[in-house]
Amino acid sequence: MSGLDGLFTPRGVAVIGASRNPAKLGAVMARSLSTYDGPLALVNSRDPELHGSVEEAVDVLGAPIDLAVVCVPAPASADAVAEAAKAGATAALVCAGGFAEAGHPEHQQALADVVERYGIRLLGPNTSGFLVPSRKLTASFVPSAADVPAGGVAVVAASGGVNHAVSFLLAEAGYGVSVAVGLGNAADVDATDVLDYLLDDPATTAVALHIESVADGSRLAAAVARVSAAKPVVALVVGRNDVGEFAQSHTGALATSWRTTRGVLRQAGAVLVDGERQLVDAVGALSMTRLAPAADPGVGVVTAQAGPGLLLLDRLRGSEIRVPTLSDATQQRVAELLPPMTYQANPVDTGRPGPGFGSVVKAVGGDSDVDLVAVYALTEPDSLDLVSELSQLESVGPTVVGVGGSSVDVGVVRSGLHERGFAVGTSPAALAHAVRALVEDARLAHRRDAAGSAAPFVEVAAGRWDEDQAKSVLDALGIRTPVRVACDTAGEAHAALDRLGGPVAVKILDAAVLHKTEIGGVHLGIRGHGDLADALAKLGDRRVLVEAMAPSGVDLIVGARRDPVFGPVVLVGLGGTTAEALADVAVRAAPLSVAEASSMPDELLGRALLDGWRGGPVLDRSELAEVVRALGQVLLDAPHVDEIEINPLRLTRDGLIALDAVITGKEK
Amino acid sequence: MSGLDGLFTPRGVAVIGASRNPAKLGAVMARSLSTYDGPLALVNSRDPELHGSVEEAVDVLGAPIDLAVVCVPAPASADAVAEAAKAGATAALVCAGGFAEAGHPEHQQALADVVERYGIRLLGPNTSGFLVPSRKLTASFVPSAADVPAGGVAVVAASGGVNHAVSFLLAEAGYGVSVAVGLGNAADVDATDVLDYLLDDPATTAVALHIESVADGSRLAAAVARVSAAKPVVALVVGRNDVGEFAQSHTGALATSWRTTRGVLRQAGAVLVDGERQLVDAVGALSMTRLAPAADPGVGVVTAQAGPGLLLLDRLRGSEIRVPTLSDATQQRVAELLPPMTYQANPVDTGRPGPGFGSVVKAVGGDSDVDLVAVYALTEPDSLDLVSELSQLESVGPTVVGVGGSSVDVGVVRSGLHERGFAVGTSPAALAHAVRALVEDARLAHRRDAAGSAAPFVEVAAGRWDEDQAKSVLDALGIRTPVRVACDTAGEAHAALDRLGGPVAVKILDAAVLHKTEIGGVHLGIRGHGDLADALAKLGDRRVLVEAMAPSGVDLIVGARRDPVFGPVVLVGLGGTTAEALADVAVRAAPLSVAEASSMPDELLGRALLDGWRGGPVLDRSELAEVVRALGQVLLDAPHVDEIEINPLRLTRDGLIALDAVITGKEK
User: Which residues form the CoA-binding domain (chains A, B) (predicted)?
Assistant: First the structure.
C-alpha cells in the first residue's frame, strides 16, 4: 500500500481557491477538473457562489472528498491543506510556487508539518499537477492535458513541465498514459512513493522516470528494483553537464551526481535514455512488449527499403546490439520468399515489398538466434498492407515496427499495429531506440536473475593505512599484489633487493603521503645496489617499500567510496589521464552481484583496450568482478573506512594485479 | 548550369513501361505523376491503349518531353533511355533495381554508355525517385509522397527510401520541401550535380544531405562549399559503425571512411548531424533562420517551464553551446517584467507565462552577448498567446521556439509561428538540435570567412627518411624538434652526450625501422657515459640518434596522409592508447586555413587535456594550426610523399615539440 489512492483514485475532489476569473490558477484548475467523473467541489470562502469550505462541500455533496487541489498562494497553502485534512481529505495537490525553490523554506516546512500532523499525502508544491486519463482526472493547470489518452505508460517526472511535455509526446507517438505525475518540490510524495503505487496499478505496463535530484538514493533504487522486476522502468536523468545553479532554482534541491544516479538506477533495473524523445520511444515500446530475460538478445532486421535499414543498422551496431547472421536454414526460407537480388543475411532487405512480407518477418523471427524482429517499411497502401501482413504472426516472437509515410497513412498503420500489440516508431531512430530499450531491459532482467554469492568478509582495522598495510588488506581479500618488503632501513632495502632480484620499485612508505609519485616518492626499474642507493638517498631517511615490478599491461582504476545520496558505491575506470579527462567511469551501488560487477567494464568508452587491444591481454570479467565486489564489501562492513582505491589495477597476461592501493577513513 | 532542369522542371514527362495493372511499378508511377501540372505521356509499346513510343507521344501531345520515367526491368532500361533521348528527352529517371548493387554491372554500364552517347542526364538506377512539390511533380513509387508540402528544404539522399522517410518527417515537423531526390546507384547524377542545381534554385533555402558513400571527395567538398556559402547545408553521414557489407549490397559502392567524410564535409561548411530526426530539426530551422557568421554565438534561453528548460540547457551545455550570463542591464529589464521568485540570469524562467512573455524574449534578445534566443513553452491558449507575443519582436534578432502540448494546440501555434518565420521544434531536444544547427552554421561561416595565408613551401627530397632526416624536414617547416646528433659510431655518441649534457634519448637511426620502441630501439633518460655504453651495446653496432630529452607534457599525434576518396588529409589526435582505442581523431582536407586547423583540437573527446588539465600546459591553437598546415602542404607539394606523421608532438610549457617523426613514400 503506497497510500496514494486518495490522490490518484479519489472518491471526490475539491478545488480550494477556485475562482471565476478565468486567468486565475483556481479557475484553470477547476476547468481542467470539470471532466472528472466523480464529485467535484469548488471552494472559495470569499466567493458566496462557491462552497465556503471543504467541510461545507462534503455536507452539501453528501460524498467524501479524498483529494484537495490547493490553488492559494504559498503562505496560505499549509492552512488550506490542514482544513482539507480535517474535513476528511487524505491527499492534497499544492501547485503554487514560492516555497523552498524561491527561498522560502518556512512555507515548505509548514506544509511538511501539516503532513506530519494529519497523515495526509501531499503532491508538490511547485508543480503543474497530474493526470489519470482513464478516470478523466486532469489535475493540471494545462487543461489540454485532458487530450492525452489513457494507456499503459506511467510518467513520474521531477518537474510538472516535463510531466506534461512527455505526456504530450507520448500521445503524439500514439501511446497512452495510466498516471502522469510532476513531483515539483516533493515536500511529501516523491518518486519512490509513486513507484510503489504503480507497482500495484494494473493499468500501468511501463514507467517513464524523469530525475533531477535524489534525496534518498537507496530508497529510490529499492523501489526501482521492485517495480522493474514486475514492469519495465525507463529513466531519464538530467544534469550530465553543469546545470546546477539553474536546477537548484527550480526545485530547491542540489543536483545529484549524474553518473552515480545513472549507474545505480541501471543496476536497479532501469533502462537509461538520453532525452525525452528517446524516453518516449523506449517506454512506449516497453509498454507493449517485453522480452524474456537474456544475456544478449539477438535482433533480426527486416526492411522494405535498404537506406532506412542502413540507418537502423548503423544505430544498432553503435548501441552494441547484436544483429546475428541468420542461420543457413533461415536464409534458405527467406530466399524462397524474396527475389535473389536482395540482401538476406540480416538485415533482410525485401526490396519493394508486397504480399508475403509477413512471411519474411515470420521466417526471420523463427531463427533460433533471433529474440526480437525489427521491421521498417514506408507505408505504401497500394502494395503493402502492413497491418494484415503482421497480424498473421501470432506464432512469432516479439516484433517492433518502424513506419514512414504521410501522417494520414502512418496514423492508420500505427493504430492498426498498436491495437494488435506492436510497438511502432515513425523513423529509423525511433525504431532503434525501441529495439535498444527492449534489449537493454532483457539484459538487465537477466543480470538481476543471476544471483550472486556474498563477497568475502575481511576485518579492516581502524587507523591509518600505508601502502603496505593497504595491500595487506587486498591480500586478505584475495586480490593479487606484487611481492613486497616494507623496509625501515637502507640495509633492509638492500636485502630486499637481493631477495626479490631486480627490477624493483622503491617507494616512500608513509600513510600521510597519498600522492607519492607527485612528490618524487617512487623510483621504478631499479636493478642494482648502486641505483638503489641513489634512490634511497633521494627519498631521504624514510621507510620504503621495495616491491617486484609487474609486467606491462593495461591499467585500470577500481575503487569504493561513500556517496552522500546512494551510500557505498564502487567505481571502475581506465587508468591514464585521457580516461580521467573523459570521466570514463562505471559506477554501481554496493553490494552487487558478480553479474552486475562483470557488466561494469562494458560501459567504458575505452573498453576496447580490455579485450586484447593490439594483441594485449583480455580482461576476465569475473576476475574483475570479484575485486570490485570485495572493495564494496569493505565499505559495507567497515563503517570507519571512507574510501578504498586500487590505482593502478593492472591487467596483465597473468591476470589482474594491484600496483598501488590507498585506504582512507576515520582513525577510530 | 547544372543541366538538371530537364529533370526537375520538365516541360513534359513520359512514363516508359506504364501499366494499367495497379500492382505494377509502371502503374504506381503513372498514378504518382497524374497530379503533375504539365503534359504527361504513358508509354507502353505492348498496350494499344497507351502511347507506343516517346516519339509518338511527343507527336500526339504536340509538346516536348524533357523527362522519361523508366519503369522497365534492368536489362531493358538502357534501350528505353536511348529511345527517350532520341525523342528529345534531356533527363531520365530509372527506378528499377538489378544493376551494380545486385551483381549486374553490365546493365549499369549500358546506362552509362547511353548517357555518354546522348548527353541525357540520368537519375538512378535503383531509386524510388524524386519530388518537386511546388510543381506537383511526384516522380516516386510512393504515391502518398504527393502529400509532402512545398517549402524551402531540399533533400539530397543517397537512398530513395531515406529521401522519402526524411521528406515525410519534414512534413510531420511542419516544414516543406523544394526538391527531394534519392540518388540510388548514381550511375550519372550524383550529390554534387544536385547540389549545383540547388545553388541556383530560388525555392531552396537549406539543404539536407544524406551520404552513404562518396566517389569523388574533392568534387563533393567543393560543391558543398559553394552551396554552404549561399545557403545552409546539413549532412547526415551513414557508416559510423561496421555496416559495410549491407551498405555495399544497397548501392554497389564501398562505404567511405565515416570520420574523414564528416571532417571534410564540415570543413566545407556542412553542419553535421547524427540521425534523421536531428537532420529534420536542424535543416528545418536553418531553412527559416540563419545567424550572421560568428566565432561563438551566445544563446539566450527563455522558458515558461523550468523542467523542460533544464533539459534544454543540459543539452546545450553538452553541445558546447555558449549560454552567457545576461548583462546586469538585461537582468534588470527582465526583473521588471517577472516576479522575483524566478531564475533570470540565463536561462530566464518566466514562471507561469502570460501577457508580457514577448517582452521578456525581447529583453533577452537585446542583450549584447545574445545572438539567438531559444524559447520553450507548453501551449496554454488560455494564458499565453505565443504567436502574438512573439509577433511583436521584429526589432529582435533570431529566435527559435520549442512548444509542447496537445497536437491540435501545437499545430495551431506552429503554423502561426512558421508563417512569421520562426523555426519551431516540438520538444526540448528538437529545440536544442535547432539551436545547435544555427550556432554551428554561424561558426562554420565565420571560419570560412577567416582567410588563411598559404603554408610555407619546403622541398622534400624523394627517398627514404630516417628520423634525423624526417626531423630536418620538420626543422625546415618551422616545427620545433629537440637538439639532436646523428652518430655513426659509439665515439660520436659519447661526444654528443658531452655536448648535449644529460639526460638524453638514444635511438636506432634507420629508415627501415618504423617502430623503434617496439623492438627495444629506444633508451630514454641516459645521463652518464656508463648508461650510454650499456644502451649502445644493447642497440648493437648501428647508427643512433642522440637527442636532448623534452620536458613532460601532453602528447598529441599529428599527421598527413593521402585518402583514396578525398586526397591529402590532415589528422590531429591525442597520444596514448586510450585515445587510440576511441579513434579520437579530427580530420580535414589539405590545404586548410589557420582558422580551420585551429578548430581541430576542439573536436577531440579528450580536449580537456589540452587546456591546462590539472595545472598542465595550455595548447596555443594557432601554433598547432601551423604544424598541421605545414604537414598538409608537404603532401600537396611532394607527390612522392605518402604520409608524414609526428608521434608524439608534445605539448609542453614551452609550446609544441616533435619527439618523433616518420615520413613514408615512394623511393623516387
Answer: 7-99
